[in-house]
Amino acid sequence: MPERLPAAAAHGARERGERRSCPHQLPGLLAALDRYPYGCTEQTASRALPLLYVNEMAISAGLDTDVDVRERVQTAIGRVLGNQGSNGAFGLWNSYGGSDTWLDAYVTDFLLRARDRNYDVPERAMTAALDNLENRVAYASDFESGGEDIAYALYVLAGRAAHRSATCATMAM
Question: pTM of the entire structure?
Answer without folding.
Answer: 0.77
